[in-house]
Amino acid sequence: MTLKDKVALVTGGSRGIGRAICLRLAGAGAFVAVNYARNGQAARETIRLIGEAGGEAEALCFDVADHGAATGAIAALIERRGRVDILVNNAGESRDGLLVRMKEQDWDRVIDTNLKGAFNCSRAVAYAMMKRRSGRIVNVSSVVALSGNAGQANYSASKAGLIGLTKSLARELAPRGICVNAVAPGLIDTDMTSAMTEEQRERVLGEIPLSRLGTPDDVAGVVLFLASDEAGYITGQVIGVNGGLYM
Amino acid sequence: MSIEEKVIEIIVEQLDVTREECVPEASFIEDLGADSLDLVELIMAMEENFGIEISDEELQKIRTIQDAVNYIKRKKGLAG
Questions:
Q1: Does B35 touch chain A (CB under 8 A)?
Q2: Given an 8 Å threshold on Cβ–Cβ distance, is B37 in contact with A172?
């Protein structure tokens, strides 16, 4: 699979699944804009790793939840590089808690980053993709969008929202040759899941037929495929990457 | 280039129609075969080219090429 001469934007590209996606896309030859909101040091490390592997990238700092900031930064990226061929809406955060204890800010922040962030960035790239009659948008959803999860009302709602967004955009943009899909990772070994207790981890492992946690690269490989020309007849789909946790 | 000429140039490019089809009374949807996505692209191209902003409300009233030309002239303060 080659992404030679393509320009990709990966939101939340500094760490975890986002970093693995950046590395995969750059490894296939794409120029990658590595978005981050706060952790500049981690973003620079992603870029260093890309450079070490012979790829090309730049850091792009903005908060996806901030409509004006996202719109401005992405317009400037399109101006600089002439195009964005691939958008990966990966930026996400979790603020878990049982509903009766969940604060309004915890609900709002998670919806704003995970769902509105994808809207903001998709909107900012869509017209340029429409004009070029090609493009790929990949949204990083989650297995809990499909299964639900106690303690993640906000997170699972935002990730389920991403699936609705994915399918609607797939229909809207199909006439312009733009494919929009989602991946729904299961339990992936990242900072986000390291917050789980050993007991929680053991319990979930027992429910995964492939009986291991996923790696960020397990997800990134699927994103690379969906971003490639080989996936040109796939749109509006949700691909589970979960070791069989949810079927 | 006059506003009329520029508008027609944009329409020819966006809707893949011929210059001859672009008579002033031609309707984007009925005569030029535009769908909703074409219309949005057309409007965005006009906004970009003429440096104006067209609200969704105003968009409803723009049905024909002449409507678009009149609208842009008005926006640009060039109405006769």
A1: yes
A2: yes
